[in-house]
Here is the input.
Amino acid sequence: MDRKTIDLGVGIFMLLGIVALLFLSLRVGNLGDDRPSSTYAVEAKFSNIGGLKAKAPVKSAGVLVGRVSDIKFDNDRFQAAVTLTLDKRYSFPKDTSASILTSGLLGEVYIGLDPGGDEKKLGSGDKISLTQSAVVLERLIGQLMFGKAAEGDAGTAKK
Amino acid sequence: MINAIRNLGTRGINALWRAGAMARFFMLILANSGASFRRFQLTIREIYFAGVMSLVIIMVSGLFIGMVLGLQGFETLQHYGAEETMGVLVALSLVRELGPVVTALLFASRAGSAITAEIGLMKATEQLKAMDMMAIDPIARVVAPRFWAGAISMPLLAALFSAMGIFGGYLVATLLVGVDSGVFWSNLHAAVDFRYDVLNGFVKSIVFGVAIAIIATFEGFDADPTAEGVARATTRTVVTSALTVLLLDLILTGFMLRGE
Here is the structure.
């Protein structure tokens, strides 16, 4: 085996390996995009966040505008304090409302932002005061069943 | 009874001695690695035998495993109407686990056994002693380049394996099952994270590569200088590497998943 063949083979091997690594990082692991360079953080308090996790997407009108960077428990108000990191390219009015939504029945949990009509814009460190908690399916079913039972009771009482 | 306990003691001492000898051997390799980088041609030659010659088996296995994952995943996911997430299933299982582990097992049996047999035979035919006589350190000249070749080749092979597997899954998804290729990629993008999935898998493959390279060179260097001894050392390399890789995988996975 002469040296040139070996060098060529190893060169091709190294190139293939590096291409595979780049493919895994850029195409599969989407490094680079989706990570805005400049961001600002706003805080929102929810009474129940359901299945929301850190790094969940923040969407407005269905478009990704940021991510959930931190979730803490506020022990003074007994609420969940969620920090949203939003892309600097997008700004929202001060009276924007945040709600926790689910895409599809079993899909991922995300935060939806509905912009209001205020002239002032949300800045870094601001708080979103209008929030809507996650819909907990078990509670919804419980309420439905409770409501039906109450209806049934009322019906028999009338008779 | 006393004999049984004595036996256990002997085995324990032997195992500990081997582990200690392997650790000292590792330090010795690191201390004598200078030549394998100053004369990089030595290492390149070994990368050719360990890495380039393993390319075909790694790429073909990766493609097939990706396709099988795609087919099997489709079987189960279709019950829930979630066959669009097939790309996620294939990519996550390959990048996190199957890529590094299966590549390590294949690499140990394809390249590790060859390294052990080569060094063992050099020892049996007293080539290593001859080098010593000529004031050439056999660890610097023979062992270190093979060690570094193994440690460098393994992560590259694992990355190739995962990439080929994802390509195989993509082929099955788009051609056989009929998942839209845009949906396949966008679901995959949303689920795979660079830091937690790709980088952790890469770290795993580096650790496995170093472990296999140490075991293969040590078993060869430690082999009895007979035909039978070389045969036994080769077998031990494959068995020990496989068990070590699986154990290390358990430990590493335990550490890596904690952050999420």
Q: What stands out?
A: The mean pLDDT of chain B is 90.
